[in-house]
Amino acid sequence: MSQAVNTVSDVQKQVRRLFDNIAATLPLGCAQVECRQPREEIVEMALVPKNEEAAEFGATFLDGDLYAAFFGRGKISTTFECPWDLHLRKSDGFHRQLAVLEKMCLAVIAGRCEHRLGRLSIRGTIYVGEREVYGVRDLPIFHPRRQRQLIQYAPYHPSAERHSANFPKLSL
User: Fold this and answer.
1) Other C-beta atoms within 10 Å of 77: how many?
2) Alpha-carbon dihedral sign for residues 79, 81, 87, 92
3) Which residue has the higher pLDDT, 92 or 141?
4) What is each CA distance from 92 to 35, 83, 88, 97, 103, in whole angstroms?
5) How far is CA 70 from CA 18, 39, 99, 137, 147, in A?
6) Residue-wise over 117-156: b if at least 16 C-beta within 10 A, else e?
7) Best exposed site among 5, 25, 71, 110 by fewest CB in 10 Å?
């Protein structure tokens, strides 16, 4: 029987362990795990690639609970709210959310993600598998001169697609 996640530090420790385990399987110097705290009640954990053409992937915690996942580079980013944008029910629990975060992160590492920019919105899509696609539309500030644009992110390293296909199941 698995233990319930019941404290702020437990949730953050488990996501940190997930990100550290994924980073440890990557080539040395390929990416690093960063922890940021923009406000007292918000903590962000992200896997940041050295390849400037690749997207970072991360998770946001609000008052200790997993609130969202995000990916992007620089000022271009989209946010997937948990659990709904992860195609989960609230009753699915934290461990199911971790499993989805793992799959999404591996897809971003492999470069299977993109942003479509329009004048009124940004659409972020992560292609986990042929039938498993996560997409979300964010509404940034209107920009009348922005042309429609497609940003396809690069993999973290040249053999990243093979890496994510053979990634060992983590034991959390």
Assistant:
1) 17
2) positive
3) 92
4) 26, 8, 6, 8, 16
5) 15, 17, 15, 12, 23
6) beeeebebbbbbeeeeebebebeeeeeeeeeeeebebbbb
7) 25
With bands split at pLDDT 50, 70 and 90, how would you rate the model's confidence at 164? low
The full set of domain ranges for the chain reads 8-165
* pLDDT, the chain, mean: 84
Give me the mean pLDDT over the 16-37 stretch. 92
Alpha-carbon distance of 155 to 168, in angstroms, equals 19
- Name the nearest CA neighbour of 153 among 33, 57, 23: 57
pLDDT tens digits, one per residue of 79-122: 999 888 988 888 888 888 899 999 999 999 999 999 998 878 88
Strands 65-73 and 133-138, by their bridges, are unpaired
Structure tokens at 120: 């009124």
Average pLDDT over residues 157-167: 67
